[in-house]
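UspA domain-containing protein: structure tokens wanted.
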Amino acid sequence: MLRSLMIATDLSQRSEKALQRGAALAKRFGCPWTLLHVVDEDQPTNLVEQEGTQVRLILEARLVELTTLGGSCPRIRVEVGDPNQKIVACALEEDADLLLVGSHRKSLLRDIFVGTTVERVLRSGRLPVLMVNQPAERDYRDLLLALDTSPASANAVHVAERLGLLQGAVCRGVYAFSPLAKGMMQYSGVSEERIDEFVGTETRQAVDELKAFIREQQLEPLIDEQLVAVGLPGNVLERMVGKHRPDLLVMGTRGMGGIKRALIGSVADYALRELDCDILVVPPLAGD
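Answer:
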């Protein structure tokens, strides 16, 4: 079960959603929780000091309210430094099981957030990140588990289970596959009947692959429904989120390889940018 969590806040409405969800999780699991605000050091010293003092006063003024919401008094940390680096360092220092952040800005610069704070934490390889997009109106009861038959996706499900997030929820595993030859067949003038037959064969094979993967990774007790859909992973996830309206999407990221990639992976990157449900992103196990 969740033992400790940290919420990174910039006092925005986006961060407020993360704070409310973090408080609900802290109360549900009876775990200690920490609120962190990082003052950007790249500004005049007097402004750094003023911001730090003001933020602490604002957060401390809410302690009674927050204690009621979370079932225990949160620890407040106001730190100075590079926000991206400091958030990672503080989360690891607190030995948090989970870091909660608000959604990124929906703007032309939205990729800056995904490519910094969330990506840096995930690249640390040790800490799951919960991006909160929706108000915390209820516990997570309906989950979508993104599966791609990789150890990273299985690990994400097991981590969510260890954190207690699957408890009492309906969990749907979704697997996307794309029959690449379909486009070539259409371009070559192959009949629709032959194309449908080909897609049907590929779909049955994908279903068998998913079942074998779930069995091998010991995910059967954790998944209530298995969904297989044709399409690119990002597009399939978008359709499934629109159809099922899950409270939470759980997904893993791939290993970075010999040279660490600048991005956390195209599917996770797309989900964090475009999908409006809460998203738990879990870094891979060492060596994956």
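DSSP finds ten helices and ten strands in the chain. The domain at 1-102 is CATH 3.40.50.620 (Rossmann fold).

Cheers.
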